[in-house]
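In the lab's daily routine, each protein ends up as an entry in a very long ledger. A line of letters takes care of the sequence, but it says nothing directly about the fold. The fold becomes a row of whole numbers, each drawn from a learned catalogue of backbone shapes. The protein below has been through that process, and both of its lines are reproduced in full:
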Amino acid sequence: MTRDPERVTAGYDACQVEARAAAANFWLGIRLLPRERRRALAAVYWFSDRADRAVDGDGTLDARRTRLAVVRHDLARALEGDGPDARWDAVADAVARYSIPEGLLTALLDGVERDLEPEPCPDWDATRAYCWGVAGVVGLVALRIYGGDPIAAPDAEEVGTALQLTNILRDVREDALAGRWYLPLDECARFGVDPAGVAAGDPGPGWPALVATQVERARASYAAGPRLLDRLPRESRASPAALMGVYRGLLERIARDPWAPLRERVRLATPVKLARGLSAAATALWR
């Protein structure tokens, strides 16, 4: 399939601009890749963000469902060579260039669709399945773009789970206010945590213990990171290493103060973020 090279380049440029504006944490990692891999990962990020915005934006359930259906339709058109705009052409080019299975992209859309009518996760298996659908699958896509050994797929999925669990802890009150609950309900009951109380900022005294359990899980998943890096080309290692460095910083801040996500959106100051990301990237390059 032949695409207009100038249109594809314009699409990649637009995706990179939007990725940089939408996600400073991810952009820090993306920008450390060589040009071809960088722009492909930016295109995939743009696609993922577009799906998220379709579901998370304002409007009725029917309106949001329709927006997500449009994303599915536009993806199918792009992969057939009829992308509705240049950004979609960039996505299709990245898919072809790095042999990304279409099933991974549709699995991501399926995972995002869960948030249209969210059901609480009854146990860790359900939480983990949600993490795979919206992040583990992204790890598998990124592994293709990084040029990693396919044997690293379980480690890529594990790192995706760690990143998403960190997100869940960071955004827990915001999600609770929106009627979304991703932490295992059976563990909430064991620790005496009421999701409705989280939305009100008063989860109960067992909150630190519940958070500590999730922190330990995330740490265990981040432990797959070094194995993943070892199975990537050296030129690709800095990108995931920087991202893990930043998100580990967020996780450890929550570990030190489990009440912080109930007060504010936990962030790292820009100098701290850069220091953690670049230090992790430098270490990865010398592995």
